[in-house]
Amino acid sequence: MLFLRITAVVLSLLVLCSPAAPAAENFSIPILLYHRLGPTVADGMTITTPVFEAHMKYLRDNGYTVIPLRQLIDHYLGKGPAPKPKSVVIVEDDAHKSVYSDMLPIIRKYRYPVTVFAYPSAISNAKYAMTWEQMRELKQTGLFDFQSHTYWHPNFKKERRKLSPESLNALVMTQLRKSKARLETELGGRVDMLAWPFGINDDFLIGKAREAGYIATFTIERRHASRSDSVMKLPRYLLVNADSGKAFAQLLEGNAVRRNVAY
Question: What residues are paired with 193 via a beta bridge?
Answer without folding.
Answer: 216
